Amino acid sequence: MSDTLQTASLEADFDRVIERHDRIEPRDWMPEKYRATLVRQVAQHAHSEIIGMQPEGNWITRAPSLRRKAILLAKVQDEAGHGLYLYSACETLGVTRAELTEKLIAGKQKYSSIFNYPTLSYADVGTIGWLVDGAAICNQVPLCRTSYGPYGRAMNRICKEESFHQRQGFELLLTMMSGTDAQRAMVQESVDRFWWPALMMFGPPDVESPNTAQSMAWRIKRDTNDDLRQKFVDMSVPQAQALGVTLPDAELRWNEERGHYDFTQPDWDEFMAVVKGSGPCNAQRIAHRKRALDEGAWVREAATAFARSQREDAS
Ligand code: 3HC
Prior knowledge:
Elements: H1 3-19, H2 32-51, H3 53-57, H4 66-91, H5 97-105, H6 123-140, H7 149-177, H8 181-200, H9 212-217, H10 225-243, E1 253-255, E2 260-262, H11 268-278, H12 282-295, H13 297-314
Antiparallel strand pairs: 1-2
Helix pairs in contact: 2-4, 4-7, 6-7, 6-8, 6-10
The structure holds 3-hydroxybutanoyl-coenzyme A.
3-hydroxybutanoyl-coenzyme A is lined by residues 40-41, 44-45, 48-49, 52, 79, 110, 112-113, 132-133, 136, 139, 200-204, 209-212, 215, 221, 225, 275.
């Protein structure tokens, strides 16, 4: 069989797997662009988990009680675990974690825009749990059915933990909302700041999203950015009512005809600026990640030397 015929036959097999909603596994043939799209998305996702440890990590030493400190420590540690599952999934596509981290630090790969906003009060820990992890769940539950096996399996486990994170955020906010006027005001101020960046997490509107159509066709993504954003709004409104907070959108109202809430779009110019590196904390987040990488070099070297000596002893 000629090379062209062989590629056509492999491509047909690949299309059939996608068509059947089956999984592509690391040793299966896949189009180069499918691999590159996955590396882009999974790496960006992994980087988001790792960079996402910073805004909340900011409050570990200042948690208001030992109980809150233990909860926050466990949550931030979970995010590190999510990053590791995702880097491992990405490694099955032929790139190493070290290469991916290098690209993140060089600004050649992205991470979620949301983590370029500061955490200014302890209520932000609750709001991140409620809105940011809530948005993450909306986006990530469908990704459990993504077409690439290792990514989907990583998402199964991550989603279970993210649900728990979302509930702990809601519980923290509910506790503060049953506290003093000052605590309630702190929660409202925090929700006012995080609502719009949370809507941006789903990516640009579908008409401006260069990757959605192809990623949907390959079943890497299972829903479009706009559909997920709508789902998130519909889910958040009754939760805000239960909490007693106001979402900062005067246009937010139920649309009987559509069977969804109408809402105002976030400021997409601000989104683009943040994605391009001009958000309030972009420089700080990357500088911190680089410092952690540099300061951890000796640990990685020691672990590699130890593993090598174990192998030599065994042989
Ligand atoms: N922040 C930064 N960049 C974003 C973005 C965001 N919120 N939304 C979109 N972009 C980027 C895209 O990466 C793309 O740039 P690129 O081509 O250079 O990669 C560009 O903007 C255009 O966007 P598209 O809609 O065409 O891109 P995608 O089809 O990849 O869709 C996505 C974007 C919906 C974020 C999709 O990649 C996705 O579902 N990713 C997996 C989920 C993920 O990464 N989540 C991170 C959230 S935080 C998190 O999980 C941590 C948890 O602990 C809370």
